[in-house]
Amino acid sequence: MSVSRHSVNTYKAEIGFAASRQPPSLLPEARTLITGDDQLITMLSCTRYLIWGGLLALAGLTAASPVATGPLPIAIRHTPSFPSSLEHRDYNTSSLSPVVSLPPTIQSDLTTLLSPSALVLLPSSPSFTQYTHRWSLNTHTNSPSYGVIVIPASERDVSLTIQYANTHSIPFLATTGTHGTWQGLSQLQGGMAIWTRNLTKMEFAADGHSATLGGGLRGNDVIPALWARGKQTTTGSCRCVSLLGPALGGGHGWLQGQYGLGADQILSARVVLANGTAVKTSNTENSDLFWALRGAGHNFGVVTEVEYKLYDAVRPEWSYQSFTFTQDRLEEVYRVHNAVMRNQSQYVVYWSLWRLVPEVDPVNPILVSTVYYNGPASEAASYFAPFAALSPLQTTPVQTTDYPGLAAAAQFRVTDWACQPKAGATVYGMDVDSYDVKGLRKSYNAFRDMIRAEPALSLSMAYLEGYSLQAVQAVPYESTAFALRDRKLLYGFLVTYEETERNKTLDAQAQNWGEKIRDAAYGDKVKQKSVYVNYAKGSESLQAMYGYEGWRQERLKMLKRKYDPKGRFSFYAPIKA
Ligand SMILES: Cc1cc2nc3c(=O)[nH]c(=O)nc-3n(C[C@H](O)[C@H](O)[C@H](O)COP(=O)(O)OP(=O)(O)OC[C@H]3O[C@@H](n4cnc5c(N)ncnc54)[C@H](O)[C@@H]3O)c2cc1C
């Protein structure tokens, strides 16, 4: 059984990216900023390497995956071109809030103020658009636009930038992985981006139990670097999201059952507050703020670095298998999911998704359940068996990989479809304790009806994520602002389209369908709806995101008044003081 280590070069080879393919237009200032080969690949590939095959592979339906059961008429060689309009996005902000008026001298002011390695870009700067990439490109729904982009090289630069922004009443937003889809992000039109991606510190503690990690790092930076040292920790499962965007809201990932959430790994954090002051937070310093950062963190500052827990990678091997079902099996499939989740091992993750594969069924999306087990295939067999016993339409062979390789297994590498930018994309999230099978059937029917009614939405997917909870629940419930430690399932209904011409019409339709699909999935029994803040979009209540207990709401409001009384950090799931 082979366990492969993925390196940047491996990734390059996998996507056929050669150095000679770097476009000549990459500007010198951009070159100096891009610190890793993989970052370069992401930025360049964002608009050019949409891999439709990746979507298929997510369900284990690649041509390379032999069909273990049942012949299927699947021809899987699609490579649709990515709309060229996405390469050079045109911010049409006329229907949004007024564009911010910036001091005419802002570029020279900030350049003088900040360290020599910092950059200040205006829309007229040749490389400006290289820093405006977002995962969802639609300004009408959830994408901000900027009149100035500041790229700090140090915490001091962040402090000075925020002080300058405050003096000149310029609204600002920290931006790292660019995957946030909260609708309030589009309220920032013509303001300031604080592009954190050059805060890339990675310093390992001598005892090997922690590292200081910069606020600009992504999972894709952290996972391979740790693995090279025989270490791992909880990060988002998707490589393209930042380390801290997820962790400040909780942070779900493959290893949470063993180590806890991303937020639970933070031993201390350095934060630049709304007034530009930089402070350290931990259980002993500014502990009230430290509490709030771990669950409601986007509300309280720009985190420049964190001291983050690390673990020896003592179980390097992962085994996984996918099972494909037609929609008529939905009730049986999710009853099995409910049954296996009752005693879910800390080493197992149960994922399921819905998507349309026209070659299998042109109108009814298929269901794909994948079981990931942190251990050898011989041990994993008993976790795969309940799904195999359902006689799926298709079963992939059991495969193994290592922890970094999980991203390829799930098609969550930065070059895969899931990570690629979309013309419009919104996640409709929810957290529940178990599958409400009746509700899920209604939800599925709405999902199917959406695709039938509007083929432009047919790339939409449902991600039903069943991470294990042992280490998440071992953390005292009151000890952080993350309030959903008891929820076993995280649903993300991703409603997406690639057309740009009709984006306003499609947005309206996507929104109607997205809400309908999500509402149905709750079923009849859920009295208090809960939503992981990082999968929320803006129509959810503060209680749904931050907890229904009065004390939680009061504490968050009090801390918002204390640390951000003017609501500077209010473009993402804002707490109203
Ligand atoms: C394809 C995809 C995969 C995902 N996978 C996962 C996953 O595996 N696990 C998971 O838990 N979530 C996941 N998410 C949800 C993810 O947690 C949120 O989208 C999160 O907001 C992304 O953070 P970002 O930095 O990538 O995005 P951004 O849009 O750059 O940031 C989102 C918010 O975080 C704030 N922020 C970012 N960096 C900092 C910082 N250093 N200091 C303070 N504030 C900061 C921003 O200001 C903004 O308000 C996924 C989302 C998508 C679209």
Summarize the structure.
The protein is α+β, with helices and mostly antiparallel strands and 577 residues long. It has 18 helices and 19 strands.
Percent of residues in helices: 25-40%
Task: Specify the number of helices.
Answer: 18
- Mind telling me the C-alpha Rg? 23 Å
Small-molecule binders here are:
flavin-adenine dinucleotide
The fraction of residues assigned to DSSP E strands is: 15-25%
The mean pLDDT is: 85
Return residue spans where pLDDT drops below 50 for at least 5 consecutive residues.
1-96
Inertia-based shape = globular
Keywords:
8-stranded antiparallel beta sheet, globular, alpha+beta, binds flavin-adenine dinucleotide, 577 residues, 5-stranded antiparallel beta sheet
Task: Describe the 3D structure.
The protein is of the alpha+beta class and 577 residues long. Helix content is 29%, strand content 19%. It has 18 helices and 19 strands. The protein has helices at residues 8-15, 28-33, 37-45, 52-58, 106-113, 155-167, 219-227, 244-249, 256-259, 287-296, 330-341, 377-388, 406-409, 437-453, 470-474, 503-522, 542-546, 550-563, and strands at residues 119-121, 145-151, 172-175, 189-195, 202-204, 210-214, 231-232, 266-272, 278-282, 302-309, 311-312, 317-325, 348-355, 366-373, 394-395, 399-402, 424-432, 461-466, 489-497. Strands 12, 13, 14, 15, 16, 17, 18 and 19 form an 8-stranded antiparallel β-sheet that branches. A hairpin with a 5-residue loop joins strand 5 and strand 6. Helix 11 packs across helix 14 (437-453) and helix 14 packs antiparallel against helix 16 (503-522). The chain starts with 7 loop residues before the first helix and ends in a 14-residue tail after the last helix. Bound molecules: flavin-adenine dinucleotide. Flavin-adenine dinucleotide binds at residues 135, 173-180, 196, 215, 236-238, 241-242, 244-246, 248-249, 251-253, 298, 302-303, 418-419, 534, 572.
